[in-house]
Amino acid sequence: MAVKIRLKRLGKIRAPYYRIVVADSRTKRDGRVIEEIGKYHPTENPSFIEVDSDRAQYWLSVGAQPTEQVAAILKLTGDWGKFKGDKNAASTVKVAEPKTAFVADDKKKPVLKPKAEKPAKAEEAPADEAPAAEATTDEA
Predict the structure, then answer these.
(1) Could you report the per-residue pLDDT of 35-69, keeping only the tens digit for each?
(2) Three-class SS of residue 74?
(3) First-to-final CA distance of the chain
């Protein structure tokens, strides 16, 4: 049985993402797999690549053949170099910068007024009318 490390396509039309899988070479592209060892999202900037290095090394050591696309990914992550015996193999995958928290400018005026101000004014007006109504009932 020939075992391949290849990409399994997921996602929508024009929005693909892939899982790096180990499968029998005779199965369908998106068919039954032996094991999932990573993820690849090409549409993100930079591309998201995550590979379980230990499992990739194991499958390469027992004879699994990577496809051209997976071989390129394994070269980026440094797993292919480790398999070939390069002790200095390192990952060259670019990582996205973490998002910064949003901070509103204190110098600018807020466009919206807080909702607490309007009900406070509305409550004051009926309070002024209430004593006048009580005064008329006392006189009668």
Answers:
(1) 999 999 888 888 888 888 898 889 988 998 999 99
(2) helix
(3) 105
Please answer whether residues 95 and 49 qualify as being in contact, where contact means their C-beta atoms are separated by less than 8 angstroms.
Answer: no
Is the Cβ–Cβ distance between 75 and 60 less than 8 Å?
no
For the chain, what's the residue count?
Answer: 140
pTM, full prediction: 0.64
pLDDT tens-digit series, residues 84-103: 777 777 776 777 777 888 87
Q: Are 76 and 93 in contact (CB under 8 A)?
A: yes
- H or E stretch including 127? helix 117-139
User: Which among 42, 2, 47 is positioned nearest to 18, based on CA atoms?
Assistant: 42
Q: Which two tokens stand for residue 120?
A: 């406070």
- Return the number of other C-beta atoms located less than 10 Å from residue 57's C-beta: 16
